[in-house]
Amino acid sequence: MASVMEQIQFLSNLSGFGEQRDLASGSPLPSSIDPTLDSKPHLWAYLVIAPTSAGLIWIFWAYVLKLYLLRRFYEKQGIRFVNKCYAVVGAEMRVSGLQGKNKSHDWLYTERPTDLYGTVRGFSVQLYSTDAALCEELIAKTGRHVDRDTPALFSFGRLSPYALTFLPIDKWRFRERKVTLTRGMKDNRRLYEIVERQAELALARFRVKNGSGATINIRELLNSWTRESSGEFIWGRSNINRHLEVLDTDGQLKALPFMTALNQTFTDLRFYASRFWNRVCFPLASLPLTKESRRLDYNIKILTKATEDMMKTPEDQTVASLVQEANDELGIPIGMTRDDLVTATIAGLDTIKSTVMGTLFHLLEPENEVWKNRILKEINDLKAAPGDDMFVKLSHAPILSAFILEALRYEPPGSLINNAAVKDFELTHRGRQYNIKSGTRIVTCIHALHQNEESWRSRVDPDMAPLTEFDPNRFLNKTETIVSSYCFMPFGKGPRRCPGQGAGVMMVKVFIATFLTNNYNCRMIVPENQTKDVTWFNIYSKATFDIVCDDKPESPESEK
Questions:
Q1: What is the CATH number of the domain that holds 342?
Q2: Rounded mean pLDDT, 239-259
Q3: Which residues fall within 8 angstroms of residue 334, CB to CB, at 6 or more apart?
Q4: 153 Cβ partners below 8 Å, 6+ apart?
Q5: Does any domain span residue 102?
Q6: In this structure, are residues 534 and 543 in contact, taking their beta carbons and an 8 Å threshold?
Q7: Would residue 162 count as lying in a domain?
Q8: Cα end-to-end span (Å), the chain
């Protein structure tokens, strides 16, 4: 009988039924599964693991799988993507190599296998248009199907986040603000007087004069000239004379003139945002995660306070006073006006500097000696001619204009119009229809557009020199044709066109004219470690060269 009871107890234990007891004492045995002990750990595990797993799945979908599917969607339409372009990191490893050669990432798209060229930028697909007809169609759709979406908001946009550069066309009084800013920058007489005087002062300070024997770093000279000229034109001389205490790269407080502090902070913001991981995930550049980012945040606060103080005491007839007065009448918030003025000040500094450097580089190359003499003669003839003021005459200097425009074509200082699709739309080109999904970044790649042989030969001139050659002849007597062709747009087109285009070109013309008048016999020396393939001048380039003012007899052309 005892044996039977033991078997029943054994089977009960196996099946999990009944209370387990010690057979000898009859006392309960500890259960191998005690629900009162394990229920809480299981609950916490579910509370942690479930949302974590869901979050990881969502991240994989949103930032990896969705990118892959969208890329495949465009590839099936015949859009090719750049080589070595990976999910999330895109082609940024290749971009790092290009930037080491003073080239922008737009060099990836100068070979045009299709009308649209694709890559991955950060966590989105980005398409580049490199054909003039397609660029024209995209610009026509600006504000309706595509609008501004630019990583620059996380670089120099930190100085002026509500500026026109970063805002949609249909919001924040965009159109009215652009009108007032464009009008405020149209005083060519005042601009010419400031730029010429500041050019003369800079050239004298750096001893740029025939026969002085001086050797001048062109980047340092142009840094000084652009800061003083732009600052005085927009803010006034007394305002920019103030000094600010900002943090230098070592984290030490240093007193700098307002324009020097503004320009250096602007440049530091751009180069900081151009670091690899900041290019992969744009918002990282604006987060206070590093010592450098926190230093830049501090300097931004100092500069913001300084510009707000300057707006309390605007100088008469400055761009700042004219824009502020017009915007006040329209009821536009003072913060937006401030941001527009800050961006107008800094946006032109590096673009003008890069354009002058590129123009002078080609002008001083031995093979372009004939062009230098032709431009110098044109300038001297304009000065000797009766009639209009010199700023008016310079607008009718075809040889000088052609040379500068070719420099802008050959290496545009900034070469993207950053937009994104705000809704699904279609692009039809050469009998092919492209379906563009909302959220896709779609960019007019100006650098590639300026190198598109097919577009230029069909829309401008079938017999022109190859676009890989620097040849100002292509602009002589054809400037209007080229500008209207959509093959050439260094300042953009349409509602997003740069409001300071006219002022920028005038500044370049005045400096080149003043420079040649003072120093027509100079020589250019390129640093030994700066080979031809890294001598490019864009807003991310660190290339430079020296000007040597030799003691040579006067040029016969200068006496005419």
A1: 1.10.630.10
A2: 94
A3: 311, 324, 327, 328
A4: 161, 166, 282
A5: no
A6: yes
A7: yes
A8: 135
| 345-381 per-residue burial string, b: 16 or more CB within 10 A, e: under 16 | bbbbbbbbbbbbbbbbbbbbeeebeebbbbbbebbbe
The full length of the chain comes to: 560
The Cα-based distances of 51 to 39, 47, 66 in angstroms read 19, 7, 20
Q: What CA–CA distance (Å, rounded) separates 492 from 499? A: 10
Q: How many domains does the chain have?
A: 1
**Sole residue written with tokens 């747009």:** 489
Poorest-confidence range of 223-237, 255-269, 510-524? Answer: 510-524
Residue 355: half-sphere exposure toward Cβ, Cα within 13 Å: 29
CA 156 to each of CA 165, 297, 335, 337, 340: distance values in angstroms, whole numbers, following the listed order: 11, 11, 16, 17, 13
- Which tokens is 280 given? 């992969």
β-pair type (432-436, 425-429):
antiparallel
CA 273 to chain centre: 10
**Residue 38 pLDDT grade (very low, low, confident, very high; cuts 50, 70, 90):** low
Rounded to the nearest angstrom, the gap between the alpha carbon of residue 14 and the centroid of all alpha carbons in its chain is 73
CB burial class (10 A; 0-12, 13-18, 19+) of residue 492? middle
Label residue 19 exposed, middle or buried (CB < 10 Å: 0-12, 13-18, 19+). exposed
pLDDT range class, residue 4, cuts 50, 70, 90: very low
Residue 65 in any domain: the answer is no
Query: pLDDT tens digits, residue range 113-156?
Result: 778 999 998 888 999 999 999 999 999 999 999 999 889 999 99
Query: How far, in Å, CA of 134 to CA of 487, rounded?
Result: 10
282 within a domain of the structure (yes/no) = yes
Residues 511 and 394: their CA atoms lie apart, in Å, by 11
Sign of the torsion angle spanned by Cα atoms 221, 208, 380, 358 = negative
Q: How many CA atoms lie within 13 A of 13 on its CB side?
A: 15
Q: Which domain holds residue 146?
A: 129-559
Are 127 and 74 in contact by the 8 Å Cβ rule? The answer is yes
pLDDT tens-digit map of 78-123: 999 998 888 888 899 999 999 999 998 888 888 777 789 999 988 8
User: Are the C-beta atoms of residues 494 and 142 closer than 8 Å to each other?
Assistant: yes
